[in-house]
User: What shape does this take?
Amino acid sequence: MLKFDPFGIYVPHADVYIDPWKPVKKAIITHAHSDHAKFGSDHYLAHHLSVPILKLRLGDVSVQGVEYGEEFDINGMKFSLHPAGHIPGSAQIRMEYKGEIAVASGDYKLQIDGISTPFEPVKCHHFVTESTFGLPIYHFPKPEKVHGDINAWWKKNKDEGKVSLLIGYTLGKAQRILHHLDPAIGNIFVHGAVANINDLMLKEGIILPLYKRTYQVSSKSEYLGSVVVAPPSALGSPWLRRFDPYSVGICSGWMQLRGTRRRKGADRGFVLSDHADWDDLNIAIKETGAENIYVTHGYKPLFAKWLREEYQLNAVEVDTLYEGEGLNEGLTEGEKEAENEEIR
Assistant: This one.
């Protein structure tokens, strides 16, 4: 049902690609991060929450939006999108032909983040999975604890006369951080690149607290005791001087690794990921009931070997251009330049 070729994940019977990394005629997109949604294809299809973000990032493209569970047909093959829980609008792509079912999951997580439709296991014969955190050392804490720790850290910094600078990638992570901030503690500011994505999500009903854009501030005194949500490009930049004195917190699954926070120059690391950890990867795969597993990115060789030996699954690693969780996850080159321009 699926082929992995130089253009992406190909569905031969429907003549369509899923998350292609080169231009194709028809592309079905799991979510709007730029390693999964590339410019240049003739036509795109995605969950309706991804449509405005795709147009923001890719320009005036031809894109069709569908709802979760809405069935559509391509060349006699049945398709539907199902929640992946990764970011708002992220979807797993279900395909069925002559009783055989395949699911391409894109990026996903089982944790409930408060802004994304929760992950929905889909029964299938073939399952395409990531393995960004596909090692048993990755066991993420409960998200409510992490968000509580973030607010406590902000409160402590405020009491010490510091600005709290929270780092998270622009699409998905930044909105998740914002959604759980306690506005009773103080003022909330966001970098302009974060605000651009926020504008689209607010129109779609995503609930965020009141905030100001950093470039709207006229006096440094407005920042006192506040929290600022900014992209990773802010790290180590002169832009940070306007917030001095400040404390930097990075929100990423990689913060579970010893030394990562230190290498990134952070004062505090919060283990907050939009990908599944080791336990949830195993749970998700078992719940699909699939016998054939295709591991696309992350710790591919080790995770595929584990699935073969532990569960006797036909698990193979496949080469793709998907990136998993990086601090700059999902940015287009244009957005990277825009971030740098504001920071300069």
